[in-house]
């Protein structure tokens, strides 16, 4: 009895001190509407017993009828949901809002650009930015054309009028292209089964990691490590890491690392190799270069995590976006014909040049509309390190800001009464000019946006040119039948089943 009393008193004192230390946070939270405040558990009950697919449907139904901005509690963690573009801009453009919440650590990429702490991320991002400069991106176009032409040729075997899942083929294609361009390593020599295993395993691994976010009882690492989910994660992480190890081995065989004193002599003789005058180097070359300086804080594990981050980011996001786009092209044959005619006007045969890509305005509109309604990322989260003013509210330090892109990109207040309808004319220049620049941010925005965003647009356009120029696409799937499932990369409730017909 004495022990129980002692424990009870200790717990009460701890709780009161905890509340007192967060007095400012609670005071600011009270100024924001919050319909789901329950003692201790907050809003956790909304997630219990729901699958990722059910979560999207449930949350979308709620969010269209809830106040904005809105607060919710995930146990002791204050969540502030912000979906108004002008407020989103205040958050994402703030230098005090580049830190990501602790839940990003669940993805085991806390040393790469995806999940690194703000101070480490700032340094690495600045050093790696040049690896996606216009000069580097332009140098990728011949490789992208060669890989896209090869992929288009391989589709001949599918041009039989029978349905097939194009995502499986695209996942392998994007894995090969991202490695050939940004890593200078040709993975096309690998067996098809190995490449497909990497992609399917990574998708499932990160889906599991994402589910852990809204299962708050799995947040404490000691508890999580006792579960079957953790054991599955360990198994999948080993498979996931094999590909980056393979790339590192290929790079070492191709370009053996020079001793540090020899590197320094070369830098002294060639000022363009100094950080003050960086050459246009691909991602892996720049990473190898900056990893040589211990001050940059890239150990062996960090080096591999940077590769893992770029590899998965460039693989699954592009594969999903391309598969979604081929699906919507099949759903809307009139728009497909418009895209085809534009391609024939710009580049009727042969490789697509870097300059040609900017002329594909109809294709870009179609791509953007597909990504608006079938987003790659459903939400973005930030953890402000200081109080941040977002229009009329003050976001306290210690809160977690959630930006639901899925809801923003279907908001009738932004896109009009037909927001749920597919219409690429939403991205006509005059309509874009009328909207807030943060109304459509598929790759996030602000200083911590996606480093490979421009690469993604270029690689997708090149592939679509080669495929649409050669094949007519059809599908039996309707947009209204598609439901989205929460994951690191949003998934569909259906396979990407299309049919191909060879154009005459």
TrEMBL record:
<keyword id="KW-0256">Endoplasmic reticulum</keyword>
<dbReference type="GO" id="GO:0020037">
    <property type="term" value="F:heme binding"/>
</dbReference>
<dbReference type="Pfam" id="PF00067">
    <property type="entry name" value="p450"/>
</dbReference>
<comment type="function">
    <text>May be involved in the metabolism of insect hormones and in the breakdown of synthetic insecticides.</text>
</comment>
<keyword id="KW-0503">Monooxygenase</keyword>
<dbReference type="GO" id="GO:0005789">
    <property type="term" value="C:endoplasmic reticulum membrane"/>
</dbReference>
<keyword id="KW-0349">Heme</keyword>
<keyword id="KW-0408">Iron</keyword>
<dbReference type="GO" id="GO:0005506">
    <property type="term" value="F:iron ion binding"/>
</dbReference>
<keyword id="KW-0560">Oxidoreductase</keyword>
<keyword id="KW-0472">Membrane</keyword>
<dbReference type="GO" id="GO:0004497">
    <property type="term" value="F:monooxygenase activity"/>
</dbReference>
<dbReference type="InterPro" id="IPR001128">
    <property type="entry name" value="Cyt_P450"/>
</dbReference>
<dbReference type="InterPro" id="IPR017972">
    <property type="entry name" value="Cyt_P450_CS"/>
</dbReference>
<dbReference type="InterPro" id="IPR002402">
    <property type="entry name" value="Cyt_P450_E_grp-II"/>
</dbReference>
<protein>
    <submittedName>
        <fullName>Uncharacterized protein</fullName>
    </submittedName>
</protein>
<comment type="similarity">
    <text>Belongs to the cytochrome P450 family.</text>
</comment>
<dbReference type="GO" id="GO:0016705">
    <property type="term" value="F:oxidoreductase activity, acting on paired donors, with incorporation or reduction of molecular oxygen"/>
</dbReference>
<dbReference type="InterPro" id="IPR036396">
    <property type="entry name" value="Cyt_P450_sf"/>
</dbReference>
<keyword id="KW-0492">Microsome</keyword>
<feature type="binding site" description="axial binding residue">
    <location>
        <position position="450"/>
    </location>
    <ligand>
        <name>heme</name>
    </ligand>
</feature>
<dbReference type="InterPro" id="IPR050196">
    <property type="entry name" value="Cytochrome_P450_Monoox"/>
</dbReference>
<feature type="region of interest" description="Disordered">
    <location>
        <begin position="254"/>
        <end position="277"/>
    </location>
</feature>
<keyword id="KW-0479">Metal-binding</keyword>
């Amino acid at each position: 009895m004495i022990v129980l009393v002692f424990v009870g008193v200790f717990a009460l004192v701890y709780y009161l001190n905890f509340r007192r230390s967060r007095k400012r946070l609670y005071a600011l939270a009270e100024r924001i509407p919050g319909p789901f405040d329950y003692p201790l558990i907050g809003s956790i009950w909304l997630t219990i017993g729901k699958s990722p697919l059910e979560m999207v449907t449930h949350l979308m139904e709620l969010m269209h009828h809830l106040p904005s901005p809105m607060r919710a509690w995930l146990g002791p963690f204050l969540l502030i949901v912000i979906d108004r573009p002008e407020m989103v801009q205040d958050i994402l453009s703030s230098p005090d809002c580049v830190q990501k919440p602790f839940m990003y650590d669940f993805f085991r990429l806390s040393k790469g650009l995806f999940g690194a702490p703000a101070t480490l991320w700032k340094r690495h991002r600045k050093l790696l930015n040049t690896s996606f400069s216009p000069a580097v991106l332009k140098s990728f176009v011949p490789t992208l054309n060669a890989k896209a032409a090869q992929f288009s040729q391989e589709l001949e075997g599918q041009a039989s009028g029978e349905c097939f899942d194009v995502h499986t083929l695209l996942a392998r294609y994007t894995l090969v292209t991202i490695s050939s361009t940004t890593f200078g390593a040709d993975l096309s020599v690998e067996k098809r089964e190995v490449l497909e295993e990497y992609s399917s395993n990574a998708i499932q691994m990160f889906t599991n990691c994402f589910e852990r976010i809204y299962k708050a009882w799995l947040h404490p690492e000691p508890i999580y490590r006792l579960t079957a989910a953790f054991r599955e994660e360990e198994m999948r992480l080993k498979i996931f890491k094999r590909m980056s190890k393979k790339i590192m081995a290929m790079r070492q065989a191709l370009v053996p690392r020079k001793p540090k004193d020899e590197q320094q002599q070369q830098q002294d003789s060639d000022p363009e190799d100094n950080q003050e005058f960086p050459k246009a180097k691909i991602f892996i070359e720049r990473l190898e270069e900056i990893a040589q300086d211990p001050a940059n804080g890239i150990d062996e594990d960090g080096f591999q995590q940077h590769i893992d981050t770029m590899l998965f980011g460039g693989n699954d996001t592009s594969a999903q976006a391309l598969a979604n786009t081929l699906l919507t092209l099949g759903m809307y044959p009139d728009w497909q014909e418009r895209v085809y005619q534009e391609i024939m006007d710009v580049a009727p045969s042969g490789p697509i040049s870097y300059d040609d890509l900017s002329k594909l305005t109809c294709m870009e509109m179609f791509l953007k509309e597909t990504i608006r309604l079938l987003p790659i990322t459903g939400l973005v989260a930030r953890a402000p390190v200081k109080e941040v003013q977002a229009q009329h509210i003050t976001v306290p330090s210690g809160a977690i800001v959630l930006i639901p892109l899925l809801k923003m990109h279907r908001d009738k207040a932004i896109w009009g009464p037909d927001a749920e309808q597919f219409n690429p004319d939403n991205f006509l220049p005059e309509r874009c000019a009328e909207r807030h620049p943060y109304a459509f941010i598929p790759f996030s925005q602000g200083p911590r946006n996606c480093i490979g965003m421009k690469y993604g647009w270029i690689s997708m356009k090149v592939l679509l040119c080669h495929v649409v120029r050669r094949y007519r696409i059809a599908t039996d799937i309707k947009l209204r039948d598609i439901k989205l499932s929460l994951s690191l990369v949003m998934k569909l409730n259906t396979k990407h089943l299309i049919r191909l017909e060879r154009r005459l």
